[in-house]
Amino acid sequence: MFVVLRTCIVAVKDLQDVEHSIEVTAETLYEAIATALAALQQDNWVGEIGQGFATVTVLVQQPPVKHEIKMKDFVSWLGRQGRSPAQVVLKQKLVRILGKTTRGDDRKG
């Protein structure tokens, strides 16, 4: 299987309504989100990111494609059982990237 890695700019607002963006390289849309969230959580300039209605924007650089995913949809998808062995492996990888938890709560965002 041929793996295509894409460079993406991932942006999300924290609970103080400050937008943060980061460039990541990923194989899938959700891997880009997980990698970006994990990196942003390590940055002390980034406040708490809500998991409810916050929107994550992913701008794919090669070729440019923009995706917006509600955090609740990402968290919900990640929490569901994979439909195929490949999806199970992908979700396990993303959980590892995120360190099993995503910061934030359902109160806002």
What are its keywords?
disordered C terminus; 4-stranded antiparallel beta sheet; 109 residues; 33% helix
What is the overall shape?
A: globular
Strand content: 25-35%
Helix/strand-derived category reads: alpha+beta
Strand order of the largest sheet: 2-1-3-4
* Overall strand count: 4
Percentage of residues in helical conformation: 25-40%
Overall radius of gyration: 13 Å
Largest sheet at a glance? 4 strands, antiparallel
How many angstroms does the end-to-end distance come to? Answer: 38 Å
Mean pLDDT, all residues: 89
Q: What pattern of helices and strands is seen along the backbone?
A: EEHEEHH
Number of domains: 1
Number of helices: 3
Unreliable stretches (pLDDT < 50, length at least 5) are 102-109
Structure in words:
The protein is an alpha+beta fold and 109 residues long. The chain has one domain. 33% of the residues lie in helices and 28% in strands. It is built from three helices and four strands; from the N terminus they run ββαββαα. It has helices spanning 29-41, 71-79, 85-98; strands spanning 6-13, 19-26, 55-61, 64-70. Strands 2-1-3-4 form a four-stranded antiparallel β-sheet. A hairpin with a 5-residue loop joins strand 1 and strand 2.
